[in-house]
Amino acid sequence: MDLSRFGVAPPWSLGVEEELMLVDAETLEPARDGFSRVFGEATERIKPELFESFVEITTSVVETAEEAEGELRSLREEVAERASEHGLAVLATGSHPTARGRFPIVPVERYQRLKAKLGPRLLRQHVCGLHVHVSVPDPDTCLRAFEGVVPRLPGLLAASANSPFWEGADSGWRSIRSQILLEMPTGGTPPVLLSWDDWRAASREDSTRRHWDAWPRPEYGTLEVRVMDQPTSLRRTVELAAEVQRLVREVAEWDGEPLDRDEYAAERDAAAREGGGPEAERQLELGPEGAVREIAARTLG
Predict the structure, then answer these.
(1) Among residues of the chain, what percentage have pLDDT more than 70?
(2) Do residues 133 and 12 make contact, with C-beta atoms less than 8 angstroms apart?
(3) At CA 261, angle to CA 95 and CA 3, rounded to 5?
(4) Does pLDDT of 180 surpass 70?
């Protein structure tokens, strides 16, 4: 395990990843060959993400969330412009309000291996999240910050909730995405990490396909927080990224007992069911058909 990347980037700098949906511009239903048709291959800033109807955009390493806002705005606009040339549009949301059924996976080897291993569980992961990496100065600080930030994750989930609909109906959750992720072998509640040996045992030396709500990423020298639903509003993304940055820095010197993970799971469920931010409530007010139209209009707004 190589821990040499910690401290390479400026401490507390950010990298932000948004998962967006590619949809038919007329029907607003998920595209069945979107990524392959529009983009073909990954670039440094625009990448495939499991389904043909998904695209991931990623910033460079930035010092502030405001810098990330400029990059993400440009990337959202670029993705939308390229998609429009193929009769497609872009949605930013945690779950598609009206979509039903299953959707094709991109022809990427690691996703095909996952499909063979996980079957229907993988095909249900048609949900999008906001992932924020925060650079930390050294490996020990990363572990402290990880355990320190775990109790704050349900609050971030509640604030970001933006996936109330599933299969075209009210799911009963403000964040159904958070529940769908629990179907993955490494989804949801993260294990306790008191040492890098614990990390090695949990990750099996591969942190790239772990879906826990937060996770140390030694290959980048970061702590990644991925509990949040994908916001529709870019400004909401920026606010959440800034809050993650603040929290990680605040808990970097944490020195206490890890939060009991059963307690964490209960708090996570409550946050997912009740929410707390504005976007899920707005979707529920509009209903599935109205929500998908407004999301399409606001993704570039």
Answers:
(1) 99
(2) no
(3) 85
(4) yes
Q: Say which residue the tokens 């396909």 belong to.
A: 209
pLDDT in tens, 92-102: 999 999 999 99
Give 111-117 contacts, CB < 8 A, sequence gap 24+: 111/48, 111/50, 114/209
Q: Which amino acid, one-letter code, is at 170?
A: D
| CA–CA dist 135, 40 (Å, integer) | 30
Nearest to 153 by CA among 84, 243, 66, 253: 243
The Cα 54–Cα 48 span in angstroms is 7
Amino acid at 7: G
Residues 284 and 35: their CA atoms lie apart, in Å, by 29
Burial 108-127 (b: 16+ CB within 10 A, else e): beebeebeeeeeeebbebbb
Nearest Cα to 159, choosing from 30, 253, 279?
Answer: 279
Neighbours of 200 (CB within 10 A): 12
pLDDT band with cut points at 50, 70 and 90 for residue 19: very high
Residues 58 and 43: their CA atoms lie apart, in Å, by 10
Nearest to 245 by CA among 133, 170, 143, 97: 133
Neighbours of 289 (CB within 10 A): 12
The whole model's pTM is what? 0.96
Q: How far apart are CA 218 and CA 141, in angstroms?
A: 12
pLDDT, tens digit (0-9, with 9 covering 90-100), for 220-270: 999 999 999 999 999 999 999 999 999 999 999 999 999 999 999 999 999
pLDDT of residue 208: 66
What's the average model confidence in pLDDT over 128-156?
98
d(CA 24, CA 239): 29
Amino acid identity at 66: E
